[in-house]
């Protein structure tokens, strides 16, 4: 293993995903979709708390001091991490029984964007949704196969989005005040033997860091030119997502999976399903928390 890459949680997760850094608490939230687990890793204490849930969970974002928001199998939820009580907010797809939420995060205005996929992830049965600050849910993109990585440019003018099977990153013009996205254009195209683009994050220089599902690496890209700047091998076949964390936002946390792996592949990648940390020389954009404009928001 590269000396710059550290295994911080040997979780052996089936499908670790959705890493989210809580800057205030210096904690890493992540999920195991298949095992229906919300996990909370403390780098300071070197502990990984696991909260068992009753349905698959796609992603998590910070909200209040003891409350997180989740996008799950049956819609948007809040969870009190002290009591572990789930509260349902809204399900935009109650009629689509094979769909579940996948990746998501909050935009610079504190709206929670998350997208769905069906069992196979290739049927354009999913959509990208936005849980607005008034708790109303709005569909942003339709006919999505597997909704995955999402990021906003440091100047808040662009949204970048990955629908995994398309093998590309699409850039939208983004209005921070209204949340409107428009003018989609392809800015990054994945090559044939690179695996598939999965989760991603962005640094303060405006470069995208993309996880390669089936590609055993993380890559850094300039979305203005479509140029790949950096490639970092990861000791796992299925690299699922990444996010910046640590006291200076220079540590890149990487989630991986061990689903669909053969015995030979598991021998080659014994730490697949683990959470890795990479020390970088660039600073990431901070994770945004959900912002609820409703009076009495603390009762959500």
Please characterize this protein's 3D structure:
This protein has 300 residues and is mainly β. The protein has one domain: 6 Propeller (Neuraminidase). It has one helix and 24 strands. It has one helix spanning 263-268; strands spanning 5-9, 16-22, 27-32, 37-42, 47-52, 57-64, 67-72, 75-80, 85-90, 100-106, 112-117, 126-131, 137-144, 147-152, 158-163, 168-174, 181-189, 196-202, 208-213, 217-222, 227-233, 238-245, 251-257, 275-279. A four-stranded antiparallel β-sheet has the order 1-24-23-22, with no helix packed on it. It has a four-stranded antiparallel β-sheet with strand order 2-3-4-5, with no helix packed on it. Strands 6-7-8-9 form a four-stranded antiparallel β-sheet, with no helix packed on it. It is globular and about 50 Å long.
What secondary-structure arrangement, pairings included, does this model have?
Blueprint: E1 5-9, E2 16-22, E3 27-32, E4 37-42, E5 47-52, E6 57-64, E7 67-72, E8 75-80, E9 85-90, E10 100-106, E11 112-117, E12 126-131, E13 137-144, E14 147-152, E15 158-163, E16 168-174, E17 181-189, E18 196-202, E19 208-213, E20 217-222, E21 227-233, E22 238-245, E23 251-257, H1 263-268, E24 275-279
Antiparallel strand pairs: 1-24, 2-3, 3-4, 4-5, 6-7, 7-8, 8-9, 10-11, 11-12, 12-13, 14-15, 15-16, 16-17, 18-19, 19-20, 20-21, 22-23, 23-24
């Amino acid at each position: 293993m590269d000396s710059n890459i550290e295994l911080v949680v040997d979780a052996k997760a089936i499908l670790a995903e959705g890493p989210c850094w809580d800057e205030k608490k210096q904690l890493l939230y992540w999920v195991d979709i298949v095992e229906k687990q919300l996990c909370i890793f403390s780098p300071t204490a070197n502990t990984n708390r696991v909260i068992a849930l009753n349905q698959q969970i796609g992603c998590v974002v910070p909200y209040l001091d003891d409350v997180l928001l989740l996008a799950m199998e049956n819609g948007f939820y809040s969870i009190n991490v002290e009591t572990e009580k789930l509260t349902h907010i809204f399900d935009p797809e109650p009629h689509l029984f094979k769909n579940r939420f996948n990746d998501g995060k909050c935009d610079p205005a504190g709206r929670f964007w998350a997208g769905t996929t069906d069992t196979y992830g290739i049927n354009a049965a999913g959509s990208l949704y936005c849980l607005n600050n008034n708790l109303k849910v709005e569909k942003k993109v339709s006919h999505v196969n597997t909704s995955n990585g999402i990021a906003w440019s440091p100047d808040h003018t662009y949204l970048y989005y990955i629908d995994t099977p398309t093998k590309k990153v699409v850039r939208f013009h983004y209005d921070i005040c209204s949340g409107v996205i428009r003018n989609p254009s392809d800015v990054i195209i994945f090559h044939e033997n690179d695996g598939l683009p999965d989760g991603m994050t962005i640094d303060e220089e405006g470069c995208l860091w993309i996880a390669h599902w089936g590609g055993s690496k993380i890559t850094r890209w300039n979305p203005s030119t479509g140029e790949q700047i950096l490639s970092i091998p990861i000791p796992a076949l299925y690299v699922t997502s990444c996010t910046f964390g640590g006291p200076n936002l220079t540590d890149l946390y990487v989630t991986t999976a061990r689903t669909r792996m053969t015995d030979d592949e598991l021998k080659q990648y014994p730490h697949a399903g683990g959470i890795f940390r990479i020390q970088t020389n660039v600073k990431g954009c901070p994770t945004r928390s959900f912002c609820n404009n409703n009076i009495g928001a603390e009762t959500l």
